[in-house]
Specification:
Layout lengths: L1 E4 L8 H12 L8 H20 L9 E2 L2 E2 L19 E5 L2 E4 L5 E4 L4 E7 L2 E14 L7 E6 L2 E5 L3 E6 L3 E8 L1 E5 L14 E5 L2 E6 L10 E4 L2 H7 L6 E8 H12 L3 E3 L7 E7 L3 H12 L2 E4 L5 E4 L2
Parallel strand pairs: 8-9, 18-21
Antiparallel strand pairs: 1-7, 2-3, 4-17, 5-6, 6-8, 7-8, 8-11, 9-10, 10-13, 11-12, 12-15, 13-14, 15-16, 17-19, 20-21
Helix pairs in contact: 1-5
Length: about 300
């Protein structure tokens, strides 16, 4: 037995669009890096006090109640003091595990599972949290994910299982699975366990409060956008720590598949925080709102970021 652990729209007013973008960015302290980011912001707050006394202004971020919120991106000021520490950028992706059969598991932070493969069955026990499974096809061996008294049975497909305190939710992203609820304890084991087939794009929920009565899973059809929101944790994030835009924009291009070009005079602006790599619209809106940066499509297909 093997155990794995992993503990603007166009009609919107400008201010409303900015607020929408801020909400969609979902800036937060990224797991494993909170100490470093907090330290960087504390250093910058200390420098700000000194600069205010000297008559200069520097905008900085804040660490509030343990959550790193988007701050106005900092413009560098020519002062006679030591330069800020070199910035860094990190790509943050969900933890990925390969199983003995070649199937792949992506783990949301906090998820725990163990593998119990046998000659006749491939069984994974999800002990807590949420995980996405991309299952390799094997006709002779069914793939089963157990979450408490609930089982998800598949052969070759892709789906996410979220094992919470009061429910087990299954979201199918490819193919079809069978969601098997617990047996009715009143039947003495004679009755068959309730089973529901769940297709791609559908979400099944088993309320654990009803599990003792052998309640069948509730199958809910989930729109594509809603499914994307539920699985947003699988997306790559870019984490910046006092990073110059001259470094941040190329990093965004590499991991988001965008083609942004930055005016060299803007390269010294700095940013700290964590950003979803797919949120280009919100990034551009914030650049315009906080720095006055405008976008200009180019004949070669790139988008130039420049001063107005």
């Amino acid at each position: 037995m093997k155990r794995r652990d992993n503990q603007s729209s166009a009609g919107q007013p400008e201010t409303e669009a900015v607020q929408t973008a801020l909400a969609s960015l979902d800036w937060a302290v990224t797991r494993g890096s909170a100490g470093r980011i907090a330290h960087n912001f504390e250093v910058r707050r200390t420098r700000r006090r000194r600069r205010v006394l000297a008559g200069a202004t520097l905008l900085s971020g804040a660490l509030i109640a343990g959550t790193l919120v988007w701050s106005p991106w900092t413009r560098t000021v020519a002062l006679r003091e030591a330069a800020p520490p070199a910035g860094s950028s990190i790509v943050v992706s969900p933890q990925t595990e390969s199983l003995p059969d070649g199937s792949v598991v992506e783990l949301k932070p906090g998820a725990r599972f163990r593998v119990e493969f046998e000659p006749a069955m491939r069984r994974v026990v999800l002990e807590a949290g949420e995980a996405h499974f991309a299952v390799c096809h094997e006709a002779a061996r069914q793939f089963v994910v157990a979450a408490g008294a609930v089982e998800v049975r598949a052969v070759g497909t892709a789906f996410a299982v979220d094992y919470a305190q009061r429910s087990v939710a299954v979201l199918v992203t490819e193919g079809r699975v069978a969601v098997v609820g617990p047996a009715d304890p009143q039947s003495g084991g004679a009755a068959e366990r309730p089973t529901e087939l769940v297709e791609a794009g559908q979400r099944a929920v088993v309320e654990l409060g009803d599990a003792e009565r052998g309640a069948a899973a509730k199958v809910l059809v989930t729109a594509e956008t809603a499914a994307a929101e539920r699985l947003a944790w699988r997306l790559r994030r870019l984490e910046f720590s006092n990073t110059r835009l001259a470094q941040a924009i190329p990093a965004f291009n590499r991991h988001a598949g965008t083609r942004l070009s930055l005016d060299p005079t803007l390269g010294a602006l700095r940013v700290s925080g964590s950003l979803r790599a797919d949120d280009l619209d919100a990034l551009l809106l914030l650049l315009r709102s906080d720095f006055g940066i405008v976008t200009e499509p180019q004949p070669d297909g790139t988008v130039a970021l420049r001063r107005p």
